Amino acid sequence: MATTAPKKHIKTHSTYAFESNTSNVAASQMRNVLNKLADKVDVSDPSHVRFENELDSFFSLFRRYLVEKSSGNTLDWDKIKSPNPEEVVDYKVIEQQPENVSNLSKLAVLKLNGGLGTSMGCVGPKSVIEVRDGNTFLDLSVRQIEYLNRQYDSDVPLLLMNSFNTDKDTEHLIKKYSANRIRIRSFNQSRFPRVYKDSLLPVPTDYNDSLDSWYPPGHGDLFESLYASGELDALISQGREILFVSNGDNLGATVDLKILNHMIETDAEYIMELTDKTRADVKGGTLISYDGQVRLLEVAQVPKEHIDDFKNIRKFKNFNTNNLWINLKAVKRLVESSALAMEIIPNEKTISRKGMDVTVLQLETACGAAIRHFGGAHGVVVPRSRFLPVKTCSDLLMVKSDLFYLQHGALKLDPTRFGPNPLIKLGSHFKKVSGFNARISHIPKLLELDHLTITGNVFLGKNVTLKGTVIIVCSDGQKIDIPNGSVLENVVITGNLQILEH
């Protein structure tokens, strides 16, 4: 199929109105514009073929979005059932089985590395943020695999799926691991055009348009990008059968031989790691049984009248950690047969054009939603320790603290800790890593902490210990300095440093 392209001057406001044949008209307009965009790329440019293929994939996604939007394709809530014991297995069942180290020859590990650190105020890939003892996310991933290979005399490779936002920086960074006992490969996920929400036409007018005209289409793009890059065939030719996939910022996602062995023994083509929900995870996607197959149910798919049911942690006990174990030959089969039709997630963004804010859509998919297309697919409920994401500086404070210690690149919870991890909420002054480091230059002791809230211009001194529930609220225009050596237990501290029993 030839591919796609946009006009040179696309109006941000179109007179196009939805009619009964909306899907066909919009699809036809999109195809014409995308073809023109593809035609602008010099055929001698090595990126030409890849660009055309990406536009083909985008058009398929866009057309399916139009069809589903017009048909109102939604789940029937009455058909949703809890998974049976074969569809969701408890880790306690499989951990009794002996480990087979030889299975490591069949494994490859992939980290989703497409995200930027902008939400935490950083420039460049999120994977280069320092998280513990001078180590970045990427450093810890490399150390984990290197230790695994050294311990078992194996050769498990590490793959990184980058986006156009992170690829250049990542390629430069991984050179420092050339002497390490690890093979690192990286490839790019697709680059899709953003679409104006009102006209449903693509934002970019040229292949080299500004970066905010494009977007990486979510980690559901993993399957096609792995295939298109040639890395899928390369892994299969090496005898690799299983790919362990996880988010690059999940510090709990280490290789688990028990799950690897369980997958091979059960001939499952796909395993999703789940863990128990807490009140902080009520919006997390969960596995359900629907029309006789396992599916991932996301909060965006839930009818408004059933949102409270979905958030009920007694009814939906587990959620998706996005730690996934996937059979590589099954991926090849499904990609080549175009059978991976995952639920589309329309994500609205705002960009600036001609001095005005314009709303755009980016159509994304999630690799967890692919579970229903794989044979023998099921979930495994794992300990909470395998889900330790760092999305905010509140998370960063926890993983830097004495709650954890570092062992061969993996974070381990201090065995003297009692109960679940503390709930930490840091205010806007701590949103960026720079503000966090300036105000918490010395990490407090949190081993006995249950709940921490800090808002406002607050600075912590050296050797501070926080226990129980600690709430520190600084009013606008004021400043709170917590003195060196302070021990705060079950207290509320306000702007004038009055300490009240909580």
UniProtKB/TrEMBL annotation:
GO terms for molecular function: UTP:glucose-1-phosphate uridylyltransferase activity. It is an enzyme of class 2 (transferase). UTP binds at K126, Q189, G218, D249, K391. Plays a central role as a glucosyl donor in cellular metabolic pathways. GO terms for biological process: (1->6)-beta-D-glucan biosynthetic process; glycogen biosynthetic process; trehalose biosynthetic process; UDP-alpha-D-glucose metabolic process. Substrate binds at H219. Its EC number is 2.7.7.9. It holds the Pfam family UDPGP. This is UTP--glucose-1-phosphate uridylyltransferase. Belongs to the UDPGP type 1 family. It catalyses: alpha-D-glucose 1-phosphate + UTP + H(+) = UDP-alpha-D-glucose + diphosphate.
